[in-house]
Amino acid sequence: MKMVLVATIAVGVTGGLLAWKERPEPGADPLILLLAGQCWWSATLIFRIDAATLSSKVFWVDVSWIGVAIIPIAWLLFSLEYAGYTEYTARKHILLYSIVPAITVFLGLTSHSHQLLYTNSVIIQEHGIATLNRTPGVWFWIIAGYTYLLGLLGALPLLKLVTSQVDPFRGQSLALLLGLLAPWVTNVLFLRGSLPSAGVDPTPIAFAVSGLAYLGALTRFQLFGANPTPIRHARNSLFQQMQQGALVLDTHDHIVDMNDQATTALQTTPNEALGRPLEQISPDLSALGSATQAGQTIYRPQGASQSYDVSESLVTDIHDRTIGRVITLHDVSNLLRDQQRLEVLHRVFRHNIRTNVQVILGNAAYLATHNSESKAATLQEHAVEINELGEKVRSVIDIFEQSREERDTLSLNSILDECLDSTSEAYPEVTFEYAPEQTDFAVDCLFDVVCLNIIQNAAQHNTSPDPVVSIKVERDGEYVQVTVRDNGPGIDSNELALVEHGSETPLKHGSGFGLALVVWGTDIAGGTVDIESSETTGTTVSLRIPILSSG
Amino acid sequence: MPTDAQNPGKQPDIESVRNRSLITKLATLTRPVRNIFLYSSVYLAVIAMAEAVLVSELLALPLTPAPIVAGLLTFAVYGNDRLADLETDAKTSPARTAFVRRYQNGFYVLAAIAYGLAVALSALGGPISFGLSLLPGVCWILYACDWIPTLPSGTQRLKEVFLLNSTLVAVVWALVIVCLPITYVGAPASPAVGVVFLFFVLATFVNTEIPNVRDKEGDSEIGVRTLPVVVGVRWTKYILYGITGLTAVLLGVAFVANIINLREALVLLLSLLFLNGVIFCLNRTENDSALAVAAECTRLPAFVVVVFPLLGQ
């Protein structure tokens, strides 16, 4: 018996040192603790066998509880850490698990003054060997039950891994369960009196088997080299960090889980939404219902500019029964906006081309039979318009392309200087008043096109006898305000509809692309544009541009 | 060394070439064994076993598994120490570091098995033996590892604390070598035990400081404060002579006070004589590594004197 216990200690210490090397891998610390408890239990058994008197034998049994009580806590923590249930291994949980074992150790060390652990201790002779016989007290059965309970709880996560698709995890969990089962069975047999162990609890000997199993898991199945700890966290993390919003509904359409993106999309909070029917939280999304099941559909929350592509997948259990569904919300606002802008671009382009071509064809037919300088000039003017239209379309497409790329920054002062230089050269009759900000700002390079179009439009369409365009730059917190004011006839209300309704409203026939470039370019670059126009006071365009850096 | 190719005019005789070839072959064959023996701390384990047997004989104790436990503990703890100091030892002991680095995984497993066996065997010697076997492991962790992450920054490893490092090593190994054979048989502590224990503490302290002379530059660079780093090599030698002298006085007083007999006193003095020889050679030879090994072996002559006559009986 003693030599078997010696082997148990050798295996335990060796396993503990091998586990020590693997720190801080999940499960390493509890495994060290478990093996230390097992070694202490085995050592005290050896000392108890060697002890000659009743009091010394009783002493070694009493102090053995230090190791015995550690084992179930260490086992549970090991299993939870290994299988990735680390939310149950916080300090408060460890303290909770340790209450009963701590009481047990205290009762063990003070057993001479009460009968809670043992009611009676005598030495009896068995086969000529003096052995200690102690009658278990009430607390003995409590700690025994508690040990079995923690053993069972620790086995549950491992049982789940036995069916894992990953080979090493199956091997590891089987080895670990075998390691649990050996001392468990031995202890049950000892408590039933079915083992001829001369009164000595052979459970720690069975831990030699555990030790070998753990060593096998360590070496053969790379216990700490490949472990399933991250799986649960990864799944949860994936759910939380996925770009799409995701809602988990039970069979009664109550929201049982949702990620941050879904919370934002539904304009709610987890506290408000979880546990409540989807219909209460978002009637619009709930109303999509069968339409969603049929395929995909678009969800637009009330009062929000975002649009979501909604898809749904059913959650089934191992019997293929539907136990809920997952609704995913994919933000397609940008996609829809770009699609709408392309449609507008396409419609206006076709309309303007058709108008110009019709004028050209009419004038060409006239010129075929007549000689008219004015008709020829008109024809030439419309041909130039087509050319300019082509340039504008190209600029718009450039802006769309740049919206998908990382863009450079430009100095706002240099942007405005260049715009003024080129426009004043093209329109020498216009007076330009420019009040630059002393501080220069770095801004998105898209504002180059935006500012050029604003200043050009202000000069080009200014029919005042004394045309004036004034430009003012002011800082407003993290933004810089560029105000371009002219004394022209104002902008047609049809064209202003584009600004008033954002990108949602198609341009009216007859519009050019200058204003579209201003509105879309500003939006893509993260700014805002505000246009005030009247036939008497002219037009004021206010650009609010985010400052990327100043200096 | 010039090769024959560089001296084409000189033809080596066939016999000398054959002899050289044989010596080279032998050296090649024995090099792995020599490397394992020296670099893996096996030789230290053998010396520890010899010392534990020497203590058993000097104190007239029956032979027990205690020397085996001492050997296994030595192998495990020194092996781990070499693994922990791979980076810092690269400068002071490049050949040993290269060997340990090459076999580090297997080396750790062997050290773990050795420690497991040592602790298990010590349990057979009773609770005090069991506790003694755990002591080197605990001290090794305290000595060599930054194992408590919550310690404030700037806290030193015990290995880096001046004098405490060598003293801790000396006391712990003296406890293992001297006390394990005693606790294993449950013999009572006697004044003779105290004298032998003090002898081993002082001699082990000297042993620990001798390799520090070789490692002076490396230790200084990594901030480990040892006697040679702090007081220089010359004063280190004076201090070590002083300690061996103090030990000799202790043995003399113990003999006069009839605590140890003449045979025991002479045997231990023989060890001191060899130890002084090693101290004398410090800074006088190129091969400092050999001196470190020689210092570890200074109790072997005493072992031979005490144990070999017993073999003939």
UniProtKB/TrEMBL annotation, chain A:
Residues 348-549 form the Histidine kinase domain. InterPro entries: 2C_sensor_his_kinase (IPR050980), HATPase_C_sf (IPR036890), HATPase_dom (IPR003594), His_kinase_dom (IPR005467), HisKA_7TM (IPR031621), PAS-like_dom_sf (IPR035965), Sig_transdc_His_kin-like_C (IPR004358). The chain crosses the membrane at residues 63-82, 94-118, 138-162, 174-193, 205-223. SMART domains: HATPase_c (SM00387). Keywords: ATP-binding, Kinase, Membrane, Nucleotide-binding, Transferase, Transmembrane, Transmembrane helix. SUPFAM superfamilies: ATPase domain of HSP90 chaperone/DNA topoisomerase II/histidine kinase, PYP-like sensor domain (PAS domain). It comes from the Archaea. It is an enzyme of class 2 (transferase). One of its GO terms (molecular function) is ATP binding. Its EC number is 2.7.13.3. It catalyses: ATP + protein L-histidine = ADP + protein N-phospho-L-histidine. PANTHER family: SENSOR PROTEIN CREC, SENSOR PROTEIN RSTB. This is histidine kinase. It comes from Haloarcula amylolytica JCM 13557. The lineage of its organism: Archaea, Methanobacteriati, Methanobacteriota, Stenosarchaea group, Halobacteria.
Automatic annotation (TrEMBL), chain B:
CDD domains: PT_UbiA_5. It is found in: Cell membrane. It comes from the Archaea. Gene3D superfamilies: UbiA prenyltransferase. One of its GO terms (molecular function) is transferase activity, transferring alkyl or aryl (other than methyl) groups. GO terms for cellular component: plasma membrane. InterPro entries: UbiA_prenyltransferase. The chain crosses the membrane at residues 36-54, 60-78, 106-124, 130-149, 161-183, 189-206, 238-260, 266-283, 290-311. It is a multi-pass membrane protein. Keywords: Membrane, Transferase, Transmembrane, Transmembrane helix. This is 4-hydroxybenzoate polyprenyltransferase-like prenyltransferase. It comes from Haloarcula amylolytica JCM 13557.
